C-alpha cells in the first residue's frame, strides 16, 4: 500500500513538473507574441505597405522552413519574425517631414524594409 502511494506521488510529481514546464514555455511564447504584435502595431502606425510586411513575413517563413532540432518551431518562427520586424529600418528612421507627400512616404516604406 505504501509502495503504491509512493509511486502515485512520484507520478503526480512528474505530471506537475511537466505542467510547470509547459506553463513556462507558453509564457515565453506569449511574451514573444506580444513583442511581435507591438512591432506590427508600430509599423502599422508608420503606414508600412502591405507588400513590405508581406516580404518580411515571407522572409521569416522561408528562413524557418526546416525546424532546427531542439527548438520549438512555433517559438523559432515568432523569434525570427520579431527579429525581422525589429530590423526594419522604418522603425529607426527620423519622423517624416511635413512637406513629404504620402506617395513618397509609401515608396520610402517599400524600399526601407
TrEMBL record:
Keywords carried by this UniProt record: Coiled coil
Pfam families noted in UniProt: CCD48
InterPro entries (UniProt xref): CCD48 (IPR031601)
Gene: Efcc1
Residues forming coiled coils: 2-46
Name of the protein in question: EFCC1 protein
Keyword Coiled coil carried by entry: yes
Coiled coil is among the record's keywords: yes
Amino acid at each position: 500500500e505504501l509502495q503504491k502511494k509512493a509511486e502515485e506521488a512520484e507520478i503526480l510529481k512528474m505530471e506537475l513538473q511537466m505542467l510547470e514546464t509547459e506553463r513556462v514555455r507558453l509564457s515565453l511564447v506569449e511574451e514573444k507574441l506580444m513583442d511581435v504584435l507591438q512591432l506590427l502595431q508600430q509599423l502599422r502606425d508608420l503606414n508600412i505597405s502591405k507588400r513590405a510586411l508581406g516580404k518580411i513575413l515571407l522572409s521569416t517563413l522561408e528562413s524557418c522552413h526546416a525546424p532546427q532540432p531542439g527548438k520549438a518551431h512555433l517559438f523559432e518562427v515568432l523569434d525570427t519574425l520579431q527579429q525581422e520586424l525589429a530590423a526594419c529600418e522604418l522603425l529607426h528612421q527620423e519622423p517624416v517631414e511635413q512637406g513629404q507627400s504620402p506617395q513618397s512616404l509609401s515608396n520610402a516604406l517599400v524600399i526601407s524594409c
